[in-house]
Specification:
The chain has 399 residues and is of the alpha+beta class. Helix content is 35%, strand content 22%. It has eleven helices and twelve strands. The protein has helices at residues 14-21, 27-42, 134-148, 210-216, 240-243, 275-283, 286-299, 309-333, 336-346, 358-378, 389-398, and strands at 49-59, 69-73, 82-96, 106-115, 154-158, 174-179, 186-187, 206-208, 220-224, 228-238, 247-254, 264-268. The strands form two sheets. Strands 1, 2, 3, 4, 5, 6, 9, 10, 11 and 12 form a ten-stranded mixed β-sheet that branches. Strands 7-8 form a two-stranded antiparallel ribbon. Strand 9 and strand 10 form a beta hairpin. The longest helix is centred in the last third of the chain and has 25 residues, at 309-333. The protein is globular.
């Protein structure tokens, strides 16, 4: 990278390490500035801000790497029970749909936190200080975005790991949509006061788990944008152990030809949206997984070998923000149709190519940087002297 930037002969590579380990800049401030630019360019003022949240592990090696421990990583083994040694980051990204990039949703990461699990008690430290969990770190990042946009509505989507009590403390204008656990108990809303003595009830009768709700509920068929027809069963109530007295809606989804049970259970605090909108919103959560895949395997996020605390905490976020800026640049200045045609021509067996990938965007940016560099080196070439017709006739006579 140092050679590609044409800095190998001019500046020592230690300057790059100093930028992450010692330079005075803030990853959160940079991420919020990038978020301001994205919202101004790609979202309407009245459109809610959709945020996807998830955690990802970046493999490291070495005992002196700050915050590196063993993490469970479903992608580290074929059966989904693998473990990986490295750093785990909680990522919050802006989910947008841009017509120039096709029909799929794109997640543009903007805020990040390094997650470190609470150490186990030892003889030297029998009572270790508790560290915040991944959902708690995600809630802090979302609160920063909500504070920056006090008049905008925020819709947060995450998997089952982020459907916890930590996100229940967010403001009312921040909705949370997550996957519901199979053993979650749903209760009816709080009943009205009876006028009798004693403390009033905080929740109604127990409605059951998702499996019990699927067996007793009424199913209807809806059309989900980009997905097709599915069968849906919606139940409103309280998930008191997580969201407390805040009313939620449970949406059970299955295929239209399924006779019983359910395929997936969703829970949301957004009571105004239709079930098909909630399903489509949760479907957009997968865009953050695609963002992780592009960051690790294409952009090279997490490949830097640093060990100090500040360098570890800021290198991965900086790489993610570079990826976000590449996508933003491509939307504003790239040519998606030409790049797709070029990719289909160079790889005709890749029949699924419909929209530009992260590799296409990065290739286009490298091509523009190389073109600009060579044009700057070439400079203005002198114009050739013009030969006029009279001079040409004189030469013919002399010959």
């Amino acid at each position: 990278m140092w050679q590609a930037a044409r800095l190998a002969d001019r500046v020592h590579h230690s300057r790059a390490h100093d930028f992450f380990a010692r330079a005075g800049w803030c990853a959160d401030r940079l991420g919020l500035l990038v978020l301001d630019f994205l919202i101004e360019r790609f979202l309407d003022p009245e459109t809610p801000i959709t945020l996807a949240v998830d955690g990802s592990v970046f493999a490291r090696s070495g005992r002196k790497v700050f915050g590196a421990v063993w993490h469970h990583d479903s992608g580290a083994a074929p059966n989904g029970n693998g473990f990986k040694f490295g750093n785990c980051f909680v990522v919050v990204g802006l989910v947008v749909r841009i017509g120039a990039l096709g029909e799929r949703a794109w997640c543009l990461p903007v805020l990040f936190r390094l997650w470190r699990p609470t150490p186990k008690p030892t003889k030297r430290n029998p009572d270790p200080k508790r560290r915040p969990s991944q959902p708690e770190l995600a809630a802090r990042l979302i609160e920063r975005i909500a504070k920056r946009y006090p008049k905008r509505r925020l819709d947060v989507v995450g998997d089952a790991a982020f459907g916890t009590r930590a996100l229940a403390s967010l403001p009312e204008r921040v909705s949370v949509t997550a996957r519901l656990r199979s053993n979650a108990a749903i209760y009816a809303p709080k009943p009205p006061p009876t006028g009798r003595r004693g403390r009033p009830r905080k929740k109604g009768q127990r409605l059951g788990t998702p499996g019990e709700l699927a067996a007793a509920g009424e199913w209807i068929e809806v059309e989900v944008p980009g997905r097709g027809a599915v069968a849906v069963c919606g139940v409103r109530g309280l998930w008191y152990s997580v969201f407390g007295p805040r009313e939620v809606e449970v949406i059970l989804v299955r295929e239209c030809d399924d006779g019983d049970g359910y395929r997936i259970a969703l829970v949301t605090t957004d009571l105004d949206a239709a079930p098909e909108q909630i399903i489509a919103r949760y479907d957009e959560r997968w865009s953050i997984e695609c963002s992780f895949q592009g960051a690790k395997h294409v952009v090279g996020v997490g490949e830097a070998r640093n060990r100090t605390r500040r360098a570890v905490e800021r290198t991965v976020p900086f790489g993610f923000l570079c990826q976000t800026l590449v996508v933003a640049w491509y939307v504003l200045h790239g040519d998606p149709r030409a790049d797709v045609v070029l990719r289909r021509r160079s790889a005709p067996w890749y029949v699924q190519e419909r929209d530009p990938s992260m590799l296409d965007m990065l290739t286009a940016l490298r091509r523009e940087l190389i073109r600009a560099e060579f044009q700057a080196q070439a400079g203005a070439s002198p114009k050739a002297a013009k030969i006029t017709r009279p001079a040409l006739r004189l030469q013919r006579v002399a010959a």
